[in-house]
Amino acid sequence: MLFLIIILLIPVINAQGRGRACGTMQSYFALRDRIVGGQLASDYAWPWQVYISLNGQFICGGTLITREHITTGAHCIVGQSNNPSDYTVTVGAHNQARQGYYAGTTYRVASVYVHQNYVSAEYGYDIAIMHLSRTVDISDTVNVICLPPSNYNIPMYEPVAITGFGLTSEGGSLPYTLQQAIIQLLPTCSSVYGGYNSRTQLCAGIQGGGRDTCQGDSGGPLVYQARKSDQWVLVGITSYGAGCARVNYPGIYTKVSAYLSWIQQVISHHPPITNFYVSNRKEGFCVQGSILARSKFYGNSLSAILDGAARLTLLSRGEDYVITMPYANCKGILIGKLTMELGGKVTIVCEKTRYSADIEFKLKPFIGGQELTNHIEGKIRLEKDVIYTFSGHWDDEITMVEKATNTKSVFWKVSQSVVNSRLKRYVVPIEQQQDNESEKLWQRVTIAIKQNDQISATEEKTIIEDEQRRQIKERKATSTEWHPRLFNIDSNTKEWIYTYADARPWDAHNDISTYENNFVICTRTRHRAHNMNNTNKSSSRSNLTINPVRQTSTLARGPSPSLNNIHDDHSQSITPTNLNQTSLFKSKLTEDSTAILKHLETTLNRINERLDTHEKDLNLLKNNRAKNESNQFSYILPYTQYILIIIVAIILKYIFQ
Question: What residue ranges are annotated as transmembrane (predicted)?
Answer without folding.
Answer: 635-656
